[in-house]
Amino acid sequence: MPDYTGAAPAARYFDGLGEDWIMRVASEDVNVRKMTLAAEMYYIYDMPQKEIAKRLGVSRPWVSKLLKRAREMDIVRIEIQSPLMGSPDMEKKLEDTYHINHVSVIRPAAGGDYTNISMAAANYLISHVKPKDTIGISWGMSIARMIDHVVDMQLPDVTVVPIVGGAGSDIECLSNVNANRLSNLLGSKCRLLHANAYCADRNEYQAVISGQMTKEIIDQGEHADIALVGIGAMKPSRILDYDYLTPEDRDHIIDSGVVGDIAFRFVEENGQVADIDFNKRVVACDLAAIRKNAREVIAIAYGREKAEIIRAVLKGGLLTTLFTDYDTAQQLL
Fold this sequence. Notes:
Blueprint: H1 20-28, H2 30-44, H3 49-56, H4 60-72, H5 87-98, E1 102-106, H6 115-128, E2 134-137, H7 141-147, E3 159-162, H8 175-186, E4 189-190, H9 202-209, H10 212-222, E5 226-229, E6 231-232, H11 238-241, H12 247-255, E7 260-262, E8 265-267, H13 287-293, E9 296-300, H14 307-315, E10 321-325, H15 326-332
Parallel strand pairs: 1-10, 2-3, 2-5, 3-4, 5-9, 9-10
Antiparallel strand pairs: 6-7, 7-8
C-alpha cells in the first residue's frame, strides 16, 4: 500500500473548514464528516479513490460523488497559497527547530473552539493507518475529543491497545475507554489493559506488571506502529488533582522540578523522563521503546499552560507529529 505520510494537513488548504458554520455542521453530520475526510484523503494525501472507498466502506462511484459534493459545498477550494503567509511558515520553523517530522498549527474557530484541531488530527490518523497496524493509545481529553471526529471505518486487521493503565474517575478520558471507542469506529480489534496506571508502592507494582496479560499488552503497546499520546501541564494537572495520590507523592512530584507529563510519565525540562519514584510505579509502556518502534507518535496539545511541557517533549525527541494551535506555536518559537 502507498505511504501517505508527510502530507500537509487539510486546514492548510481547506479555508472553508475555518468557517464556523462548516465546523458546526461537520461535527454533527456524519455525511459531511465523511465528505470532508474523503476530500482530505484524495486532495491532500493523494490516496486513490479505490482505497478511500475501501476505508469508508462505500463504493468507488460514491466516493466520486462525495468529492463532487465537497466542491459544490465549498469545502474544497482550489487555490494557490503563499508559503510565507499563515501557518505553513510557522509549521516549517517548528519542524526545523525541534527536528520533528510533522507539525500542524491550526487556528481555533471563533470563541476558542478547538474542534478543527481535533478534526484535523482525526483525519490525519485515518489517512496514515495501514493494514495490520497496531495503534497504541493513551489517556487524555485531547485524545478523547479527537476520537469524537473519527468516522466509521472498516479496518478489521488493525488492533488498538492502551499504552497506560486506568487513572481517575473521568470515564471520557480513560485509556481503555479511548481504545474501545477508537476500535469501534475503525471497525478494528481491541485489547484492554486491566490495571491502574499508578501503584501505591513497589511491591504492588511488581505484582501488577508481572501478570501475563499485563506484560502482553505492554509489549504490544511498546511495539505499536502508531501511538497517540496525551500531554499534561503541571497547572492544572489531572494527575496531581486525583485523590488517590498521597500528599507525599504529590509534594515529591512538585518539588522534583518536572514540567509536566506525557502518557502519565513526568518529564524534566530537557524532555528526559524524570528519575522519580512516581515514574517507577506507573503501569505504562516505556516511552523510549514506543518512540523507537512506532512509525508515528502523535500528540494533540494546545493552550499556553502546556507550552512548557510541549517544548520539553519536543526537545526530548519523543514525538514525530504534533497538532497544536497558533498561540501555543508562537510560544514554542
